[in-house]
Amino acid sequence: MSFETQTPPAGGASASPTAPRTPLVTSRLPEVGTTIFSVMSALAVKHGAVNLGQGFPDFDCAPGLVEAVHAAMRAGHNQYPPMPGVPALRQALAAKIERLYGHRYNADSEITITAGATQGILTAILALVHPGDEVIVLEPCYDSYGPAITLAGGTVVRVPLNPADFRLDLAQLSAALSPRTRAIIINTPHNPTGSVWSTGDMQALAELLRPTDVLVLSDEVYEHMVFDGQVHASVSAVPELAARSLVISSFGKTYHVTGWKVGHVAAPAALMAEFRKVHQFNVFTVNTPMQHGLAAWLADPLPYEELPAFYQRKRDRFRAGLAGTRFELLPCAGSYFQCVDYSRISSLPDQQFAEWLTAEVGVAAIPLSAFYSRPPARPIVRFCFAKTEATLDEALRRLSRL
Ligand code: PMP
Ligand code: GLN
């Protein structure tokens, strides 16, 4: 914490020798305010709007998962677990990752349970990025990446995704690499645009990074939300990338429990050893009964195997409803987000449009500028379709006048 010295103002109550002194604080993140997700959720409540802004399901998780957590509590799993996480959960994850992506992580030394993906991302960056290092992010990107890099003393290098389809632009990425590049953060399926990486994209990245020591932080929290028969391209499926990557995911997305804040990170032992040095002083451990409950629940692949079809139905219902409006629908190949171009409806900047939509139409959305360092060229807002059919239909009813 850094405090600047302050000369108390002369006169008035605050000048009294007994008045408490308010230290001047120099912000570590001077450009950061409250996240757009909290802002839009609060606005949705204020206006009684249907909240398609912040990304979270409005339906409950499987009762069996709740029961598994209760059972763990009743069985006395209520004290600190081992620092990297409950062994049964790490073993279940190692088996799942091997089955899905063909790479075997060592459950003892290569997997750590985190307090959500957010902590995994911050901890990975604090552990591996030194002051002055450059970290590449592909813009638009999730809002925590930039501040996490800044907190580590790194420099954020922003490479635009291809504006036509929000896919990787390899030439631009290649041009951004420098001797100071320490890491690149990638995210597939992508928040906010719903684009997904192909195996070919992964291979191209592997080739590009081959002569370098650049690390990859791969944010794969939406790994089970890939549509239209495509498969999720994980860095762990490409041995060359797995050897230089930290793979981050979240049970919050997969099991409809965003409020539990339990995620995981997988990485080669040498990287994981550094990760854990920070993790142990960051949170030390993540709550025990939920880890036991999740370990039991992971034994059955059905809940995550059903997820693509489950969310694809919601995507299709929502897109079909929006087709009758003047919104221009962008493709959505994965994630639970649908982006729309609203230029046929309004010329407002996206934040104002999202506020207007919330207050006047009664549907909250997220402006895409929240994922950019500068105002984006195209007027787009993001809707979250992780909602019940009734919620989606009510939102569509309200949006139908546009
Ligand atoms: N990465 C991305 C791309 C996300 O969308 C989110 C949350 N929605 C996170 C990370 C954070 O996940 P968690 O809630 O598990 O911290
Ligand atoms: N990741 C979620 C989203 O994109 C929100 C998480 C949060 O509120 N920080 O909407």
Notes on the protein architecture:
With 402 residues, the chain is an alpha/beta fold. It has 15 helices and 15 strands. The protein has a seven-stranded mixed sheet with strand order 4-10-9-8-7-5-6, sandwiched between helices. The protein has a four-stranded antiparallel sheet with strand order 11-12-15-14. Strand 7, helix 7 and strand 8 form a beta-alpha-beta unit. Helix 1 runs parallel beside helix 14 and helix 13 packs parallel to helix 15. The protein is globular. Bound molecules: 4'-deoxy-4'-aminopyridoxal-5'-phosphate and glutamine. The site of 4'-deoxy-4'-aminopyridoxal-5'-phosphate (PMP) has 14 residues, from helix 4.
Show the helix and strand layout.
Elements: E1 3-4, E2 24-25, H1 36-47, E3 50-51, H2 63-74, H3 87-101, E4 111-114, H4 116-128, E5 134-139, H5 145-151, E6 155-160, H6 170-176, E7 181-187, H7 199-209, E8 215-219, H8 239-242, E9 245-250, H9 251-254, E10 263-266, H10 269-282, H11 288-298, H12 302-305, H13 307-322, E11 328-329, E12 337-341, H14 350-361, E13 363-364, E14 366-367, E15 380-384, H15 389-399
Parallel strand pairs: 3-13, 5-6, 5-7, 7-8, 8-9
Antiparallel strand pairs: 1-2, 4-10, 9-10, 11-12, 12-15, 14-15
Helix pairs in contact: 1-14, 2-11, 3-11, 4-5, 4-10, 13-15
Bound molecules: 4'-deoxy-4'-aminopyridoxal-5'-phosphate and glutamine.
